[in-house]
Design brief:
single chain; 7 helices; 7 strands; about 40% helix; globular; binds nicotinamide-adenine-dinucleotide; steroid metabolism
Length: about 250
């Protein structure tokens, strides 16, 4: 049921890491893919490597005009958009709470929260124009599911995404649009620091994950195999979110 022939997919942050892995998987399963990234070279590289039809669009997901532009480019190239992986994100500062800068907070929230909001709104506007159903997956994080003492702006932004997923699911359900999230654990990419990845040893599966393992979950949620899954947050974290770091 993971067959994306005749489907058009937009993947943001697809220049590297998890987004690039999703773009590859969707393309291999038959989708036409719109590779969106703020890094023009990275977007071109991913699009060039895909086995199927693809275009690259350089866009900053935190900017309304850029989000409108990537959607217009997708429709111009392929006629419609059925699947969205709203994935672009940044880690932001790891300073202790009292030392955090408001400008840094705003920057993280702009990319990680306003970006998916703009992407979700643009997706729903396009579904209304097309009069089709569809599916959206947002990349949340295990930082959406539990507290920790570091990366506070990141953590706040990722918790906010749960509202986007649940509100989106409520809105989309009656019109045939499903909205879900994946919550990756520790995955070696450009975003995860070496320090963070050291914690892979404490994960129940005793290792970090791979971008492909997250992409598999994204593809499932976007596919008809998940046709009755809506408003769900699927942890892809080797069990990390389900264990407590506090010993009773
Ligand atoms: P990554 O840095 O490899 O990929 C992120 C991509 O997003 C990059 O190509 C970057 O250029 C792009 N990007 C950054 N800001 C952008 C913007 N404003 N507009 C458009 N594109 C932008 O990192 P990744 O780990 O693949 O991150 C993907 C998503 O996964 C993020 O939302 C991140 O928060 C989430 N995540 C990652 C981990 C992990 O351990 N790697 C864990 C949980 C969640």
């Amino acid at each position: 049921m993971i067959d994306f022939r005749d489907r058009v997919a937009v993947v943001t942050g697809a220049g590297s890491g998890i987004g690039a892995a999703t773009a590859h998987l969707l393309s291999a399963a038959g989708a036409d893919v719109v590779v969106v990234d703020i890094d023009a070279c990275a977007a071109e590289r991913t699009a060039d490597d895909l086995p199927g039809r693809a275009i690259a669009v350089t866009a900053d997901v935190s900017r309304e005009e850029d989000v409108d532009r990537y959607l217009e480019a997708a429709v111009e190239a392929f006629g419609a958009v059925h699947l969205h992986h709203l994935n672009a994100g940044i880690a932001g500062p790891a300073d202790p709470l009292p030392d955090l800068d408001v400008a840094d907070f705003d920057r993280v929230l702009a990319v990680n929260l306003r970006g998916p909001f703009l992407g979700l709104r643009a997706a729903f506007r396009q579904y209304r124009r097309q009069d089709t159903g569809g599916a959206v997956v947002i990349t949340a994080s295990i930082a959406s599911l539990r507290g920790s003492h570091d990366l506070l702006p990141y953590q706040i932004s990722k918790h906010g995404l749960l509202g986007a997923v649940r509100g989106g699911a409520m809105y989309g359900g009656p019109i045939g649009v499903r909205v879900n999230a994946v919550a990756p654990g520790l995955v070696p990419t450009g975003l995860a620091s070496d320090d963070l990845l050291q914690r892979g040893r404490t994960v129940p599966q005793r290792r970090t994950g791979t971008p492909d393992e997250v992409a598999n979950a994204v593809a499932y949620l976007l596919s008809d195999a998940a046709s009755y899954v809506n408003g769900e947050v699927l942890a892809v974290d080797g069990g990390a979110a389900s264990v407590s770091s506090v010993r009773a």
